[in-house]
Amino acid sequence: MPSPKAKNPGRSGGSPVLGSSNGRYEFMSLTKPLNRSSPPHLLQRQGSDPTTARLRASESPTRRRGSGSSTGSASGQGPPEEDGIRLNPSLIRVALSSLLAIDLWLSKRLGVCACEDSSWGSVRPLMKLLEISGHGIPWLAGTVYCLYKSDSAAGQEVMLNLFMGLLLDLILVGIVKAVVRRRRPAHNRMDMFATFSVDRYSFPSGHATRAAMCGRFLLAHLVLAAPLRVLVFLWVGLVGLSRVMLGRHNVTDVMFGFWMGYCQYNLVEMLWLSPQTLQGLLGQSA
Ligand SMILES: CC(C)=CCC/C(C)=C/CC/C(C)=C/COP(=O)(O)O
User: Fold this and answer.
1) Is residue 200 part of a domain?
2) Tens digits of per-residue pLDDT, 116-166?
3) Residues 149 and 18 in one domain
4) Per the record's keyword annotation, is Hydrolase included, yes or no (predicted)?
5) How many structural domains does the chain have?
6) Span 175-191, mean pLDDT?
């Protein structure tokens, strides 16, 4: 039986994007169809028979590689262009699914407070306290209270913008959750208080977005003393960690949530409502 090498002396396990003609290797385009000036053995692979082309496309790369004689370019069957076209998307898919697998594995390992009888079940009450500290209701209620109690225009301006930021956060997180629809981890017990229907989805973590946005807001406008600033940083980090430890979220939900909350603060700054803007808005509506 002739070996593939004997049939195709120029090809020794080379890249599938290489074509051989006249004993010389040439690079073939991965994305563009071959033009008429291409060597006939390359054109032949495109084939006028769609059934054969489909069957070839559905073959696994391993099988294609294994059938040495059928891949020999000297036999008039050059390396398949489908390989080149499918290589990049499949690489991305492999990278994404590996990241997802690491995410799920890590999240499961870190979900040590998911229920009372989990390995760290005894710290679950502490984690739930952190959960409440990052919940939307205390933040909204606290902001409205401070707005009401504040007797300076500057204080009211800051509180009003924080309030707007919190509403913006709820809306944006709700939209992303509704679009992405990633289920919460299987080990999560859905015993959270006051949730919207989109909160059955986990991507992104609303607590993480709120913690990151409010953390930045506090550091920029309200908390100046160094020890308190450290506490703010710690609180943001712990809120994120507690989401994974409680089994509410995967690590990527929290990471993305932090990034989203960070960006949301930029949006708050861009849309900052000054007393003048506010007066203008109120004047227009009156
Ligand atoms: C006034 C008003 C509309 C308040 C709604 C506040 C509320 C129910 C926020 C939901 C907070 C929540 C449970 C978010 C879910 O956070 P994840 O970290 O689990 O995504």
Assistant:
1) yes
2) 999 999 999 999 999 999 999 999 999 999 999 999 999 999 999 999 999
3) no
4) yes
5) 2
6) 95
The reported pLDDT for the residue numbered 154 is 92
Atom 15 in ligand 1: residue holding the nearest Cα: 206
Does ligand 1 come within 6 angstroms of the Cβ of 192? Answer: yes
* Atom in ligand 1 nearest the alpha carbon of residue 208: 18
Judged against a pLDDT cut of 80, whether residue 25 lies above it is answered with no
CA of 75 to the centre of ligand 1 (A): 65
What are the DSSP calls for the chain, one per residue?
Answer: ---HHHH-TT-SS--TTEEEETTEEEE--SSSPP-TTS-HHHHHHH-S-HHHHHHHHHS-HHHHHH-HHHH-GGGT----HHHHHHHHHHHHHHHHHHHHHHHHHHHHHH-TTSSTTSTTGGGHHHHHHHHHHT-HHHHHHHHHHHHHH--SHHHHHHHHHHHHHHHHHHHHHHHHHHHH-PBPPTT-----SS--GGGGB-SS-HHHHHHHHHHHHIIIII--SHHHHHHHHHHHHHHHHHHHHTTSS-HHHHHHHHHHHHHHHHHHHHT---HHHHHHHHHHH-
Residue identifier of the C-alpha nearest atom 16 of ligand 1: 206
Q: Is 206 in the pocket of ligand 1 (CB under 6 A)?
A: yes
The boundaries of the domain holding residue 11 are 4-70
What is the reported pLDDT for 82? 53
- Ligand 1 atom showing the smallest separation from residue 193 Cα: 13
* ipTM > 0.90, yes or no: yes
**Band of the pLDDT at 81, cuts 50, 70, 90?**
low
